[in-house]
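Give me structure tokens for this 195-residue protein.
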Amino acid sequence: MCGDTDEKQLANEHAHLEETQIESTQVYRGKLLDVRLDRVRLPDGHESAREYVIHQGAVVIIPVLDSGELIFERQYRYPLRRAFLELPAGKIEDGEDILKTATRELLEETGHSASQWRYLGVVHPCIGYSNERIEIYIAQGLRRESDQQLDHGEFLDVLNLSLDDALDAIRHGDVTDGKTIAALFWAEKVLRSGW
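Here you go.
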């Protein structure tokens, strides 16, 4: 669907499912996210509580080397207490253009710049408890510019994998990061089918 009319029609079709905010309370405010507790009116008129996380969004980048290999990172993720294999990604800063975020994160985390960028889409990884969105880009025409320029407190290893090896890593449970799995779905379609 595209166009303003289609969006309005779709919104009207689903109006019977909407919940209306009655009251909203900030439970926690951090550097990365906010936690809210809202009282809402349900479609049947009853009230309920909704706890959710406000997140300013992020980008994930599929960096494709001239060899066809993809640049990955291995990074320790504290909440799950282990290292994960994932694609480069990062948080969108307040008011920052998403392509600027992608460009910045690729350079900071891998030391590469890209001459070709293509926006592929968006995923909402936690729709039951967060408004987080992750914008997906594919980056080609890569050039090594510098060493990593990691943020304070950020530690990661960079490695290259073929698309086949990356897809095998998903099948074998070596890649379980949701944004990376979604982005690799797109990578396979774009790189093999010309989507």
